[in-house]
Amino acid sequence: MSRVSVRVAHPEDAPAVNALLAQLGYPSPESLVRERIALLADRQDDRVFVAEMGGEVSGVLSFHVMTLFHAPDNLGRITALIVAERKRGAGIGRALCEAAEVFAWSRDCGRIEVTSGHHRSGAHAFYQRLGYQLDDHRRFIKQREPSR
To answer: Which of 51, 71, 129, 147 has the fewest CB atoms within 10 Å, counting from its CB?
Structure first.
């Protein structure tokens, strides 16, 4: 079995990251992915991590730290975690989450949250195996009206 290595993403990773996003149902223009990787690389409290296995990018995780107004510590948020379909179960997701947790704790986060669609039961079980607990709070979303 190949070893998993995790590093910070570079704009050159955009084609591989874009392919991963498409596998999860989030196709994006490669130029946007490249732009976002570069933008987040310049921010102190944001990271995009990629995992390599067998010499190829096999997973990606985006992470953001938010300063909370009402609490003394920060909140960490995983906004995307994708592992290549053919490499799931090889420890890639776990390695990415461990990198995110090290980053979060170094940025004074008191907790990490992640949102996962109702239909992704495998992802839910994965997060629970890593110690994440299902939260029973309601999340409310308001979409911006399309511009005319």
So the answer is: 147
Q: Please give the pLDDT value at position 148.
A: 73
Rounded to whole angstroms, the Cα distance separating 85 from 74 reads 32
In the prediction, which pLDDT does 109 show?
Answer: 96
Distances in Å between the Cα of 132 and the Cα atoms of 55, 125, 135, 145 are 30, 9, 9, 34
In which region does residue 23 sit, left (phi positive, over 0), alpha (psi from -120 to 50) or beta (all else)? alpha
Residue 130: the pLDDT is 82
Q: Flag residues of the chain having pLDDT under 50.
A: none
Residue 13: name the closest of 45, 44, 58, 54 by CA: 58
Structure tokens at 138: 């309601």
